[in-house]
């Protein structure tokens, strides 16, 4: 199989997965991008590196950055939003429905919250104390501080429960679901129960589990770009590290306490690049 690669010069990356940068060279049969184009994209298997130059085959995994978006927010808008898109597509949210997002301050959760609010649903979200103001600013109607409150011990009922951090379970959330409510988690769950439960509950007419297998990047990337252009999605950035501090960036992410996304600058800060 023959691949023609486009050579990119990344400005910022999200820990080896997503990137935003500029095209510095193209292969002879590449017509979709030109030198100096500002582009962003990712591969679902990860780039597995941070480097000054990256060669990628443009197979629907790259797009030009909207003029109103800087490199930082372009890089931070990808993987979390990609998985949030899978939640949205499989849920079929309708106006007036009630949903709960567990872990709303993470990369997936903060993107999902912004996408879900476009459907006119009533949104309840969970986060830590430090992120309550942020989550309210993203238009959550109700917020549970998980350091002080267990949302499963309240009597609210939901059409959808989205567990974006995989820290709950269908068993715990089932009593909170309406008669035809849906539970969805970003993780397989204990003993890989979520895909199994999705298969079994699909046979019934009551409460269900849906496992959000991601859609193609070719489908999610135009969706993400559209919301960036329209201003209905602004990715949350916690911290930005220079490439020399890559180990520190990974160590911080592994604490499990990050908010939204952590960005790595390949060539120092580029806040003026818009």
Q: What is the overall pLDDT average?
A: 87
Q: By CATH's scheme, which homologous superfamily of the largest domain applies?
A: NAD(P)-binding Rossmann-like Domain
Helix count, per DSSP?
A: 8
Q: What gross morphology would you assign?
A: globular
- Can you tell me the CATH class of the largest domain? Alpha Beta
Count of domains: 2
- Low-confidence stretches at least 5 residues in length (pLDDT < 50)? 1-7, 268-274
Helix content: 25-40%
Class of secondary structure makeup? alpha/beta
In the CATH hierarchy, the third-tier topology of the largest domain is known as Rossmann fold
Strand elements, count: 13
CATH architecture annotation of the largest domain: 3-Layer(aba) Sandwich
End-to-end C-alpha gap: 37 Å
- In terms of DSSP E residues, the strand content is 25-35%
| Cα Rg | 19 Å
What order do the SSEs take from the amino end to the carboxyl end, as H and E?
A: EEEEEHHEHEHEEHEHEHEHE
Report on the structure:
By secondary structure, the protein is an alpha/beta fold. It folds into 2 domains: 6-77 and 235-265, Quinone Oxidoreductase, Chain A, domain 1; 80-210, Rossmann fold (3-Layer(aba) Sandwich). It has 8 helices and 13 strands. The protein has helices spanning 71-75, 79-91, 107-116, 132-137, 170-173, 193-201, 217-230, 246-254; strands at 6-14, 18-25, 38-42, 54-56, 62-64, 98-102, 122-127, 142-145, 158-163, 177-185, 208-210, 237-242, 261-265. Strands 1, 2, 3, 4, 5, 12 and 13 form a 7-stranded mixed beta sheet that branches. Helix 6 links the parallel strand 10 (177-185) and strand 11. Helix 2 (79-91) packs across helix 3 (107-116). Mean pLDDT is 87; it is low at 1-7 and 268-274.
């Amino acid at each position: 199989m023959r691949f023609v690669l486009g050579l990119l010069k990344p400005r910022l990356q999200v820990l080896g997965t997503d990137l935003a940068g500029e095209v510095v060279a193209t292969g002879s049969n590449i017509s979709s991008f030109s030198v100096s184009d500002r582009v962003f994209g990712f591969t679902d298997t990860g780039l597995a590196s941070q480097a000054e130059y990256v060669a990628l085959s443009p197979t629907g995994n790259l797009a030009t950055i909207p003029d109103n978006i800087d490199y930082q927010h372009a890089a931070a808008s990808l993987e979390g939003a990609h998985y949030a898109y899978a939640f949205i597509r499989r849920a079929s949210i309708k106006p007036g429905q009630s949903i709960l997002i567990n872990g709303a301050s993470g990369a997936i959760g903060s993107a999902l919250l912004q996408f879900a609010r476009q459907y006119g649903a009533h949104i309840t979200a969970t986060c830590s104390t430090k992120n309550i103001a942020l989550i309210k600013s993203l238009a959550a109607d109700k917020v549970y501080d998980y350091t002080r409150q267990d949302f499963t011990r309240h009597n609210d009922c939901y059409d959808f429960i989205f567990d974006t951090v995989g820290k709950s379970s269908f068993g715990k959330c089932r009593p909170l679901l309406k008669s035809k409510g849906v539970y969805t988690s970003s993780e397989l769950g204990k003993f890989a129960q979520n895909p199994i439960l999705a298969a079994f509950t699909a046979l019934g007419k009551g409460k269900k589990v849906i496992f959000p297998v991601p859609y193609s990047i070719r489908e999610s990337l135009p969706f993400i770009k559209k919301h960036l252009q329209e201003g209905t999605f602004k990715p949350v950035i916690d911290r930005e590290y220079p490439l020399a501090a890559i180990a520190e960036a990974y160590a911080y992410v592994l604490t499990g306490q990050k908010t939204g996304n952590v960005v790595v600058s390949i060539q120092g800060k580029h806040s003026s690049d818009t």
